Amino acid sequence: MNLFDLTGKALKVARQIEDFADQMEDDPSIIEQLEGLLLAEEQAQDALFEKADAYCWVIEKLRATAAARSDAAQRLKDLATQDGHKADKLEEKLIQCLQKVQPDKTKYILSNHNIISRKTSVLQLESDLLPEEMPKPYQRIKVEFNRQAIKDALKAGKDVEGAAFVERRSWSIK
Q1: 26 inside domain
Q2: Rounded distance, CA 30 to CA 20, Å?
Q3: In terms of residue numbers, what domain contains 88?
Q4: Which residue in 121, 126, 129, 142 has a CA-CA distance of 20 to 30 Å to 135?
Q5: What 8-state DSSP symbol labels residue 132?
Q6: Torsion, CA 107, CA 108, CA 111, CA 112, rounded to 10
């Protein structure tokens, strides 16, 4: 049986026990049947918990695999970054060599490749310049929630429109 079938079976037995318990006042002979149902409930719950334990094992294995893949992805990302830096340095050295031979050229036509340069303009700001030192039209102000102030106000009993403490339950498999 799968987890959901076992859950349904356990719930069905629990409902039958409730029904029999309600009938006990009318018919004392139901006690034997009730004991059988209690045993069935225990067995159904044991089977359900055994299946749930198997699910936990699968969940742990999937999380371990995900972590291993994440680590592998990070290693590959680091290797890709290193390869990109190597390629950039090699390209820079290649262009320096070509420019030493023909410094005024902006295009090199090779057998299988073309090396072309383009001029672009980019904004460069002084490294020690702070945004607040620029005139207001050249500043961008980012507005964010002050979560700590909101928490403190709620704890102090103040009403903060749009904010409230909510309880959440989190589960973990150990």
Answers
A1: yes
A2: 7
A3: 3-155
A4: 121
A5: G
A6: -60
Mapped onto helix, strand or coil, the DSSP state of residue 108 is: strand
Angstrom distance (rounded) from CA 109 to CA 67 = 47
Tokens of 166: 């909510």
Whole-model pTM? Answer: 0.58
Residue 110's H or E segment, with its range, is none
114 has which bridge partners?
109
pLDDT in tens, 44-81: 889 989 999 999 999 999 999 999 999 999 999 999 99
In a domain, 174, yes or no: no
Alpha carbon distance 61, 51 (integer Å): 15
Measured between alpha carbons, how far is residue 88 from residues 76, 107, 112, 120, 146 in Å? 18, 18, 19, 18, 42
62, part of any domain: yes
Q: Report CA-CA distances (Å) from 123 to 9, 119, 126, 150, 161.
A: 69, 13, 10, 38, 42
**Total domains in the fold of the chain:** 1
At 164 the three-state DSSP class reads: coil
Tell me the β-bridge partners of 109.
114
